[in-house]
What we know:
GO terms for molecular function: ATP binding; ATP hydrolysis activity. By secondary structure, this protein is an alpha/beta fold.
Amino acid sequence: MGEGVMEAIRCSGLSKRYGGTAAVDGLDLSVSAGQVYGFLGPNGAGKTTTLRMLLGLIRPTGGRAWVNGRRLPDPDGLARVGAVIEEPAFHSWMTGRRSLEALAWCGPPLPHAAAVSSALDRTGLASVADHKVKTYSQGMRQRLALALALMRAPSVVLLDEPMNGLDPAGVREFRISLRALADSGTTVLVSSHQMAEVEQLCDRVGVIKNGRMVAEGRPQDLTTAVARVVLAPPDLEAARELLARYFTVSREGPATLLVQDGDGRAVNEMLGRSGMWAHQIRVERSGLEHVFLELTREASHTERRTGVEGDGDATAAG
Ligand SMILES: Nc1ncnc2c1ncn2[C@@H]1O[C@H](COP(=O)(O)OP(=O)(O)OP(=O)(O)O)[C@@H](O)[C@H]1O
């Protein structure tokens, strides 16, 4: 994304408290127009609550948010926002196309006569549009929900874990639909637990924990280099001691060391100077999943009780 691209979504200090619990706690978030933004976080991190606030379904208790440059709450702007927060219940005896046409009756008029066909097309459902929904796979139903969200040609789409429950082929198809959507200029904010998919799909990623952003950036910038060094004993132990002076090193297998943040050339040079020669040095990026787990490690046993509304952070590690 270039400089000066319009922000499609912005949250500034956005907060939502339920009694003493801070579901979202001073969240800052910025999504440029036309991006696919991955919104990651462990269970209970505040993802759904954030999406519900952006949709005007619940009212924030603090902070501000804008969608398409318009300060929320903004009922008039909702027509330009599509969402799949919970899977809608379709009538299984209707066809996919008929389901969308029936639901089009509720709400404002469609932007053009071919809006239903276009939404089915964009979600890869054109060939099964006239089949009954009860014959659809889980993945097809989830894409039908996406088609429903796209029917009014929104400029921003909010999706809450849309790939949950899909098999690898379903996830791949869904990912292709989302990518095509963003390539046509629609902004997509997608919450997910499927790290590998997020890594492949998203232009940027934000990781939230306890209702706050803990890491943000391009997927490739959030991952770190790991050098995998294969050496035969007895050099292995000597190499571990040597490299451990400069890097975090761990034994991975009987002949392999894992060197965090290791640059292959530096590792090679250090070993060579000490007369040790590796059979192999391979530098890889550690997956986003690893980074996610590290960043959110304590989240599952962290209590989030806060004091009186307006108080500062009272987070206590459990
Ligand atoms: N209506 C509510 N009343 C009280 N607490 C709530 C309510 N909605 C959410 N919470 C709490 O707010 C926190 C954030 O919930 P939220 O559903 O936003 O998390 P999430 O990141 O979407 O989690 P998941 O990945 O499990 O869907 C949780 O601790 C949850 O229990």
